[in-house]
Amino acid sequence: MANKTVVALLFGGRSSEHSISCATAGGVLTAIDRSRYEVIPVGITRDGAFVLEDDDASKFALDPAHLPTVGDNGTRVHWPESALSRELTVTDARGTVRSLGDVDVVFPILHGPYGEDGTIQGLLELVGLRYVGAGVLASALGMDKHFTKTVLSQAGIAVAPWHTVTSRQWNEAPDAVTELVSSDLTLPVFVKPARAGSSVGVSKVKQWAELGAAMSTAFAEDDRVLVEEGIVGREVECGVLGGRAGAEPRASVAGEVVMTDREFYDFDAKYLDAPGIDLVCPADLTAAELAEMQSLAVRAFSSIGCEGLARVDFFLTPGGFVINEINTMPGFTPISMFPKCWIATGLTYPEIIDELIALALD
Asked: What is the dihedral of CA 69, 72, 73, 79, to 10 degrees?
């Protein structure tokens, strides 16, 4: 036991992607090599309480009829009091405090606000714990679609044309906003919360008369919304892993999202295995197309200062690749694209976890 690396697996959270984070935790709990790692499962309830969860992957299986959640079991996990300690403690439901031992690395598999956006990364930086994935700045940038696109544009990487609208702008002058975006963007457009993931709050607008309802849906998730021109092209994605000891990041083979009978790759298709979407991996690309896509993915990863891992989503258009977004903590559920792409590249699921932990400890 003394030679094992102690991993605090952190999941759940306050965002609308709570259940997806739990399902990702189930995948990691199933795959992580128990001969190498001791796992401390720390769940975050929807109210933000840190609780000691069960080390039971089956509890967090992705069942569309009963999405997994972190419940408040009365325990409270406490982070180190300073950067001089790596000890976690827990208070049980009766008020008894005990040590969980020293933690070597935290694996924050959190999606959406209050987890993927730099907030939990800031907490871990303050207490001096190493963690998997991007740091504070890259996490915040990757979570905010407006600033991701701004940075990528500055780096000379093509992104879809867009306008960012605040709730105040929309409430005060919806007609003026509609006039602005309709004069600058071509239908269809996608309306997206600036800081949400998993396609939560996203709508496809085919007629400008539909814009108001789409804005309401998006503003339910965030007070800033992107209106983004729809791009006609193949939807292709690849995973990126950071390089050890200053080495270059590397990209996986590509996967493709093929729409057979669905408007877009929405929440149900991503996580509930809804029909109308096929995930093809590896995607049918020429060697030149794949090399260009991988190069752009690594450039995007480096442009926002990312570390650890990311999934970069593209449209392949007749004019070339356009980046849709970069996800600094992509899903690890059984039907998620990030593990699919790396498995097709030659890594096993446990090896992906090993590499991410090694990168965090490097």
From this structure: 100
DSSP 3-state of 271: helix
CA angle 100, 20, 10 (to 5 degrees): 15
Query: Residue 320's beta-bridge partner residues?
Result: 317
- CATH code for position 245: 3.30.470.20
125 and 49 in one domain?
yes
For residues 133 and 329, the answer to whether their CB atoms sit within 8 Å is: yes
In a domain? residue 357: no
What is the tally of structural domains in the chain?
3
Rounded to whole angstroms, the Cα distance separating 51 from 25 reads 14
Q: What is the spatial distance between Cα 51 and Cα 43, in angstroms, rounded to a whole number?
A: 5
Residue 352 lies in a domain: no
Q: Could you tell me if 85 and 103 lie in one domain?
A: yes
The secondary structure element, H or E, covering residue 136 is: helix 136-143
Name the residue range of residue 188's domain.
Answer: 162-229
Task: List the pLDDT tens digit at each of the 362 positions of the chain.
Answer: 458 999 999 999 999 889 999 999 999 999 999 999 999 999 999 999 999 999 999 999 888 888 999 999 999 999 999 999 999 999 999 999 999 999 999 999 999 889 999 999 999 999 999 999 999 999 999 999 999 999 999 999 999 999 999 999 999 999 999 999 999 999 999 999 998 765 778 999 999 999 999 999 999 989 999 999 999 999 999 999 999 988 999 999 999 999 876 455 555 555 555 556 888 999 999 999 999 999 999 999 999 999 999 999 999 999 999 999 999 999 887 678 999 999 999 999 999 999 999 999 98
> What predicted TM-score, i.e. pTM, was given to this entire model?
0.90
If asked whether residues 316 and 262 sit together in one domain, one would say yes
Residues 280 and 206 in one domain: no
Sheet with 50-52: strands ordered across:
50-52, 37-44, 5-12, 105-108
